[in-house]
Design brief:
CATH superfamily of the largest domain: ANL, N-terminal domain
Number of helices: 12
Radius of gyration: 23 Å
CATH class of the largest domain: Alpha Beta
Number of domains: 3
Number of strands: 25
Strand content: 25-35%
Distance between the termini: 60 Å
Helix content: 25-40%
């Protein structure tokens, strides 16, 4: 019989052998003994610091785990801003009291840089308890463009790991975890950190950016690959196939042609997860053919409310549930398909992009008087298109410098603030942005400006 999943409060404190493997990077393996030592060291440093809320900005997942545990065992609150861009961190420093990172970043505020120690402390003294009421704070793109704070209770994240271990149970046994998603968003946090740590599975501390890295994985392991539609679209199936035993994808719709190509290469059908930062996991499907509906996880309830649905579940802290941004169509069996998305937050390559934020950032640039951002699909790929109204000086500069040069300058100015996929690809300069009789923009009409070739 499999052991029950470990709650976060017991990841280091539960009685297990010090030589239990936790994570690896290249030839290096970190054991539970190393983790206990590193967490204890950082916990003592954090307990001496003023300030309750500490932002975690990491590339190395092992060091991310060290910081997450040390922060909580020190009685502090981990804040996960969702990025490590210094310009944004400086702007958002009111969201946290300091940063813990595996890099110096160039941040001008309080910063603790973490490195893995070379030794293990002995004997291990169990760390202070972490209460179930403790929380982790994440930030996503809100509908206004400002970062939206999402509070996740530790107890809820532990329950989520139990749900996943129950759903995938025996299929997980003996797997090592590799991922092409970062732990700075809930999907990566849940699947790349909580699931392996709760289930006793060794995880790769490095992120996989390219198919070549996936293909180069050692053949002496069996892998659970935590991925996304954006990564799977870019697979090079001419490479040698790694021994992937199981594939999980989330964060966006996975086209059937990409599923078929992935299966032809890896000989596994993906398990897809539907959910959000606010709700946690909501539904699942194992897709072996094109039209497979989503199956809700146990005790997830969808209640129709005007054009959309309100959802309640054991993972949602709010008793009244949460309103979904997605439009769902249910069948008679309680399963559903996703028909689209409402509102001003769109998903591009699994990133939640606030169109309002793009517009606000554009309006901060010199010479831009009005801006309208919208998703544009070209050749099966989605990007951001913007309509701009310029003042006289900026319009003259645009005409003099040339279209390409000016667009490049705007893109370069936006990069410190926006995700790369949120930086506009398609640009239109207008005398005025059309509105209807109610003085509101009709975005279906604005889409027409991008129908012709750019």
């Amino acid at each position: 019989m499999n052991k029950p999943p470990l709650p976060l409060s017991q990841w280091v404190n539960a009685p297990r052998a010090d030589n239990t493997p936790i994570a690896w990077l290249g030839e290096r393996t970190w054991t539970l003994g190393a983790l206990r030592h590193d967490v204890t060291l950082l916990m003592h440093i954090l307990r001496q610091q003023e300030g309750e809320r500490w932002a975690l900005c990491f590339e190395n997942s092992y060091l991310f785990i060290v910081a997450l545990l040390a922060t909580l065992h020190a009685g502090k609150t981990p804040v996960i801003p969702g990025h490590s861009r210094v310009s944004l961190l400086e702007e958002q420093r009111g969201l946290f009291d300091g940063i813990v990172s595996d890099r110096t970043l160039g941040f001008t505020g309080r910063l603790i840089v973490v490195a893995a120690s070379q030794g293990e402390a002995a004997p291990f003294v169990p760390l202070p308890d972490i209460e179930d009421s403790r929380v982790i704070e994440l930030f996503t793109s809100g509908s206004t463009g400002a970062p939206r704070r999402v509070v996740k209770h530790i107890a809820s994240l532990d329950r989520e790991a139990v749900l996943l271990a129950t759903r995938f149970g025996e299929r997980l046994q003996g797997c090592s975890i590799v991922a092409s998603v970062v732990p700075q968003h809930l999907y990566g946090l849940t699947f790349r950190i909580f699931l392996p740590m709760a289930s006793g599975l060794e995880l790769n501390a490095a992120m996989l950016y390219y198919a070549e890295q996936l293909a180069a994985l050692p053949q002496n392991r069996r892998y659970l690959f935590i991925s996304s539609p954006a990564f799977l679209k870019r697979l090079d199936t001419d490479l040698p196939a790694p021994p992937v035993e199981m594939l999980i994808s989330a964060g966006g719709m996975l086209p059937w042609e990409d599923i078929f190509a992935t299966h032809s290469w890896l000989n596994v059908w993906p398990d897809e997860i539907y959910g959000s930062t606010e709700t946690g996991i909501l539904a699942w499907r194992h897709r072996q053919e094109m039209s497979i509906p989503w199956l809700p996880f146990p005790d997830v309830t969808f209640i129709a409310e005007e054009e959309t649905y309100r959802v309640t579940s054991p993972l949602i802290h709010e008793a009244e549930g949460l309103l979904l941004d997605d439009i769902l169509h249910f069948d008679d069996n309680g399963q559903f398909n996703i028909a689209g998305r409402r509102g001003r937050v769109v998903k591009i390559e699994e990133k939640r992009i606030s169109l309002n934020e793009i517009e606000q950032r554009l309006l901060e640039l010199e010479g831009i008087c009005e801006a309208a951002a919208l998703p544009v699909t070209r050749g099966g790929r989605q990007g951001i298109g913007v309509l701009l109204v310029l003042d006289d000086k900026a319009r003259q500069r645009w005409q003099k410098r040339g279209k390409r040069a000016q667009e490049f300058a705007w893109r370069r100015a936006l990069l410190p603030w926006l995700e790369p996929v949120a930086v506009p690809r398609y640009w239109r300069i207008l005398d005025e942005i059309p509105v209807n009789t109610m003085n509101k923009r009709v975005y279906a009409q604005l889409q027409e400006f991008f129908h012709e070739d750019s």
